[in-house]
Specification:
Blueprint (H helix, E strand, L loop, with lengths): L2 E10 L3 H12 L4 E5 L6 H5 L1 H18 L16 H24 L6 E3 L2 E5 L2 E4 L3 E10 L3 E3 L12 E2 L1 H4 L8 E5 L3 H12 L3 E5 L11 H12 L3 E3 L3 E8 L2 E7 L5 E6 L1 E4 L3 E3 L33 E3 L10 H17 L12 E4 L4 E6 L10 E7 L4 H5 L6 E7 L5 E8 L2 H13 L4 H5 L9 H15 L2
Parallel strand pairs: 1-2, 1-6, 2-3, 6-17, 8-15, 9-10, 9-15, 10-11
Antiparallel strand pairs: 4-5, 5-6, 7-16, 12-13, 13-14, 18-19, 19-22, 20-21, 21-22
Helix pairs in contact: 1-8, 3-4, 3-6
């Protein structure tokens, strides 16, 4: 027997964006249901931000112990890394974070939760598990994303993993080949290397994380290659499987052809929006070349339809705070439909939790038109506080409008970039000029004095 539910707003997906959309719809006086077929708990809590930072924290502890001698502090004896203990803490704390999210979902009334996978019958009718029909006035797609795995990697069989699988390990493996030097590849590759795992990190076309500034990218490549095998423009000759090992033949950094065997191959080749099984062909809305609905980036509305898309499913800025903001916008506009309004868009900020950290704020180098901006630069190699802490690796570029002196954005690699990034994002959102930023207080001695040096360099070029 088919059950029918009539509702104002149906939200597909109970992740960060979906839960925010549900709450926004209810706050605007509409009835709503949230539909989820998988386990509750966001991507960030289960397999993203939080477990990866737990692994990184363990890696940083091991790394610091190995590098105390320069301070005159000597750690006698062997440093032992217990992989089982590392992964046990990662999973225990991960489950704790997931528990917070799950408890939040449990507070949603039972009648507002539908368990199953939804697909569109038409713009506002959904079929869930073939036995529940949901007739909604509006729909929010918040189905998240999944790791992308190139077809060629399937040759590795069960030796092939994605980042989700790492956090299911009971112990650390002996060796891992990582394909993809983006955010996930850099963070996990460096962390595993510091925890004693043999790591080879391969990329194509020379990319390093999300960096687009050639000078910063070149500097970052050099820094990471000094610590572990990192080739962002690798030449892979052959991939295959030998017994219970993955086998890869490649040209190493010395130009030699080598063959190595690995316990696992980690595909970190980006993520794909989870929209392929939604039956979007039944809606009549326009889809792009990747099969993702075409939508307004400000209102998140798909064309003029009563369908909205938020979070990782739209693949604009796959970050937790952006997903929360977008979920609120989509849920609010679904409630207000057909009267939709632009949602909150904060200053763009992104951080890679490598060491040194990578960060970007506002416009990247690639977003700027040649001749329209000036660049302020600072090296952290001789920056006072950075040298004191022996964290003096880094290069920063800040960009300013050549005519107005407005701060436009920045790209850099360096110590405590996550903290400086917030200072810059707030400055950008406040619409400050380089001169106004220099009027702000800078304590001594702090790493932020390096930022001041870059701002002074930009200011001098603006006034040359």
């Amino acid at each position: 027997m088919t059950k029918t539910i009539e509702i104002d707003v149906a939200v597909i997906g109970a992740g960060t964006a979906g839960l925010a959309a549900y709450r926004a719809a209810r706050m605007n006086g509409k009835s709503a249901v949230v539909i989820e077929g998988g386990p509750y708990g966001t991507t960030c809590a289960r397999v993203g931000c939080m477990p990866s930072k737990l692994l990184i924290a363990a890696a940083e502890a091991a790394h610091e112990l190995r590098h105390t001698a320069a301070f005159g502090v000597h750690v006698d004896g062997q440093i032992r890394i217990d992989g089982r203990e590392v992964m046990d803490r990662v999973k225990r704390e991960r489950d704790r974070f997931v528990g917070f999210v799950v408890r939040g979902v449990e507070n949603i009334p039972a009648e507002d939760k539908v368990v199953g996978y939804a697909r569109f019958v038409d713009n506002t009718t959904l079929l869930v598990n073939e036995d529940i029909t949901i007739k909604a006035s509006r729909v929010v797609i918040a189905t998240g994303s999944s790791p992308a795995v190139p077809e060629a990697f399937h040759v590795f069989g069960d030796r092939l993993i994605v980042n989700d699988d790492v956090f299911a390990w009971d112990d650390l493996p002996g060796s891992v080949a990582v394909f993809g030097p983006g955010v996930i590849g850099l963070e996990l590759g460096q962390a595993l290397s510091r925890l004693g795992v043999k790591v080879r990190l391969f990329g194509v076309r020379g990319g390093v994380g999300p960096l687009s500034d050639p000078a910063i990218r070149s500097y970052a490549k050099k820094v990471f290659a000094e610590e572990f095998h990192f080739d962002p423009d690798a030449k892979i000759i052959k991939m295959g499987r030998e017994g219970d090992k993955a086998c890869i033949t490649y040209v190493n950094l010395q130009g030699e052809e080598v063959t190595e065997h690995f316990d696992y191959v980690l595909s970190a080749a980006g993520r794909t929006p989870n929209v392929g099984k939604l039956g979007l062909e039944n809606t009549g809305i326009e889809l792009n070349a990747r099969g993702v609905p075409v939508f307004d980036a400000e209102t998140l509305q798909c064309g003029t339809s009563p369908i909205f898309i938020a979070g990782d499913a739209n693949n604009v800025l796959p970050l937790l705070h952006e997903a929360a903001d977008e979920g609120k916008t989509a849920g609010t506009n679904a409630a207000l439909y057909p009267h939709v309004v632009p949602g909150l868009r904060r200053a763009t900020i992104g951080v890679v939790f490598s060491d040194p950290q990578i960060a970007m704020v506002g416009k990247r180098f690639i977003d700027l038109r040649e001749g329209s901006f000036v660049t302020g630069e600072v090296s952290f190699e001789d920056q006072g506080r950075s040298r004191v802490m022996l964290k003096n690796k880094g290069l920063m570029h800040v960009y300013a409008d050549a005519d107005t002196g407005m701060f436009l954005g920045a790209e850099w690699i360096g110590p405590r970039a996550e903290n400086i990034a917030h200072t810059l994002a707030w400055s950008l959102q406040q619409g400050l000029t380089i001169g106004e930023m220099l009027d702000m207080p800078f304590y001594h001695p702090v790493i932020e004095e390096g930022l001041r040096t870059a701002l002074r360099d930009a200011f001098a070029k603006l006034n040359a």
